[in-house]
Amino acid sequence: MVAEAGTEQAGRFRVDPMRIEHIPVVSAIERRCFAQPWPQNAYRREIQTNKSAHYFVVRLVEPNSSAPMVEAPKPAGSEPGLFVRLSRMLRGPTEPTPSPALESELRSIVGYAGLWLMTDEAHITTIAVDPDFQGNGLGELLLVSLIDCAKQIGARWLTLEVRVSNDVAQRLYEKYTFKEMGLRRRYYSDNNEDALVMWTDPIDSDTFRDTLQRNRDALTRRLGLYD
């Protein structure tokens, strides 16, 4: 659904390559999703110096438009502008205040994902969606975007680690032919939980292509409900 150098829109959601300016908001989302978030300088290194890394953000936009919404809708009780304030706080005192256009773009970011290309293997490093927007198919949209990226950069398989307790994520990966191929004991240092190692079928195989197209069509219809 997305090319490394381009963008793709599905309903009111749009996937774009991650930029340095996005990092404070990505970090704010990560702190809400993970017990041990990456530091911001790790993402900066990934974008600036790691030639094998490919990262994306998903944004909430106006229907049929590339412009981000000025005020993204939030569930009742959540505070508007949360991530803009967090991005200011995490940015530090020496960095300039974003322009109104950039602030609007930052406000629209609701998730992110990334992978590394290792020879002919695309290793998914992270997928996260802001908790206020989970359950809308955005994790799947990011996964499909990573698959499209993997195909473009010459990968033959995708692989990842997932917590043994994360049944929801495992079911999503299984939809896209990921299968358990190993176990990493005590992989997660926050609670010493084991990780399943999962691999796809070859992504140039007929089985994978048919599965991807079928799931892509269903996801497009689902996200189209936002139009």
Describe this entry's structure for a reader:
The structure is a single chain. With 227 residues, the chain is an alpha+beta fold. Helices cover 36% and strands 26% of the residues. The protein has 7 helices and 8 strands. The protein has an 8-stranded mixed β-sheet, with helices on both faces. Strand 7 and strand 8 (193-199) form a beta hairpin. Helix 1 packs across helix 3 (82-91). The model is unreliable at 1-6 and 64-87 (pLDDT under 50).
Q: Average pLDDT across residues?
A: 84
The biggest beta sheet, please?
8 strands, mixed
Helical residues, percent: 25-40%
Q: What is the topology, as strand order, of the major beta sheet? A: 1-2-3-4-5-6-8-7
The SS-based structural class is alpha+beta
Given as residue ranges, the uncertain stretches (5+ residues, pLDDT < 50) are 1-6, 64-87
Q: Give the end-to-end Cα distance, rounded to a whole number of Å.
A: 17 Å
Cα-based radius of gyration, to the nearest Å: 17 Å
For the secondary structure, the number of strands is 8
Tell me the β content.
25-35%
Gross geometry:
globular
Order of helices and strands: EEHHEHHEEHEHEEH
Structure annotation, total helices: 7
